[in-house]
Amino acid sequence: MYKVIGATKTRAMRVMWMLEELGQPYDHLPCAPRSDEAKQYNPSGKIPALVDGDDVLTDSVAIMQYLADKHGALTAPPGTAARAHQDALTFWLIDEMDAILWAAAKHSFVFPQEQRVPEIKDSLKAEFARSAAILSERLDGPFLMGEEFTIPDLLATHCINWSIGAGFARVDDKLGNWAKSMRDRPAFKAAATREG
């Protein structure tokens, strides 16, 4: 059985949601980043980590793609143009949404007080809003890659949820309604309400 390392209100939620979508059982160790528990699985203390047998995997996106490939679901097949398009969107989401949110978090509570530059957050919020508008314009169907739920849907929804919690401006109605439909998925609800 898989084990997910990391609190639900972190990127570990992505992995938990993925496992719920795949119908795979897992244990959950809801530890905080940089905690002694987290460092047992990743020396840097970063979460999430996924334990699969003797292997410990790190980085939420790498873990999600590993699980999708291993179980043959929620992804286009490797070596196809569809997969290249999916990967391009996944990398764009990491660069243009996730990285912006992480930068804002670092200047809010991650960095020591003396290293924080609170003034940067306004420009980060503006950049996120620009990216959200691009994503909304791209959305043309029930899912980002067309008719099938894939990793980019999960990743984008998690970023939108994170932006709400971080006090960023709401995305437009089209994207907001789409994100709500993703949060209404039974697998999302199961992961979000999981306790340890």
From TrEMBL:
Residues covered by the GST C-terminal domain: 79-196
GO molecular function: glutathione transferase activity
InterPro entries documented for this protein: Glutathione-S-Trfase_C-like, Glutathione-S-Trfase_C_sf, Glutathione_S-Trfase, Glutathione_S-Trfase_N, Thioredoxin-like_sf
Enzyme class per UniProt: transferase
EC numbers: 2.5.1.18
CDD domains listed in its UniProt record: GST_N_GTT1_like (cd03046)
Tagged with keyword Transferase: yes
SUPFAM superfamilies named in the record: GST C-terminal domain-like, Thioredoxin-like
Gene3D superfamilies: 1.20.1050.10, Glutaredoxin
This protein's UniProt keywords: Transferase
Domain GST N-terminal: 1-75
UniProt keyword Transferase, yes or no: yes
Top-level division of the source organism's lineage: Bacteria
Protein known as: Glutathione S-transferase GST-6.0
Protein's organism: Sulfitobacter pontiacus
